[in-house]
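Appendix C: a fully annotated inverse folding record. The material below is reproduced so that readers can follow the format used throughout the book. The structure is listed first as tokens, followed by the designed sequence.
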């Protein structure tokens, strides 16, 4: 199947992660440093995330040629806050793919699964994500990747993404 027939003539997709790619999470890391971790507070605080200028600028630029899609490890129960946050910060409209509530698989598995599903019918031009493991697996699967390295990383968040399947 050729690229144009697969996409049905529609614009290619630019796929963006949210946390530490478009939205700064540093202010809510404290909820992951507690024992036990306070996941409800961590996700509730997401509506107060500051936008990350490099990621927001890239999403707006890609929207000129691509349809923007958001791919996050946030659980489905955060959908309303996530949609409100995207709109409040003037990000391009786009489909939001979220982790099913209760899905604890590593982010690199869940995100690659969705990327492959999207690629069956559309040209995925780029994935933009801060998670090095997600980026490595997506590159290994043949996707073009931009590693969003503009936000300070967190060992707690990396652990949540990889070992706990929480974000």
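Designed amino acids, in order:
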């Amino acid at each position: 199947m050729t690229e144009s027939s697969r996409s049905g003539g529609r614009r290619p997709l630019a796929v963006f992660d949210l946390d530490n790619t478009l939205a700064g999470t540093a202010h809510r890391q404290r909820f992951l440093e507690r024992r036990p971790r306070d996941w409800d507070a961590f996700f509730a605080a997401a509506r107060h995330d500051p936008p990350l200028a490099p990621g927001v600028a890239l999403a707006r630029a890609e929207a000129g040629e691509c349809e923007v899609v958001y791919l996050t490890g946030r659980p489905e129960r955060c959908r309303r806050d996530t949609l409100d946050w995207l709109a409040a910060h003037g990000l391009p409209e786009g489909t939001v793919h979220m982790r099913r509530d209760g899905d604890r698989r590593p982010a690199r598995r869940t995100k690659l699964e969705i990327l492959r599903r999207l690629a069956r019918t559309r040209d995925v031009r780029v994935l933009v994500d801060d998670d090095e493991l997600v980026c490595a697996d997506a590159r290994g699967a043949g996707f073009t990747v931009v590693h969003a390295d503009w936000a300070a990383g967190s060992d707690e968040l990396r652990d949540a993404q990889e070992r706990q399947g929480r974000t």
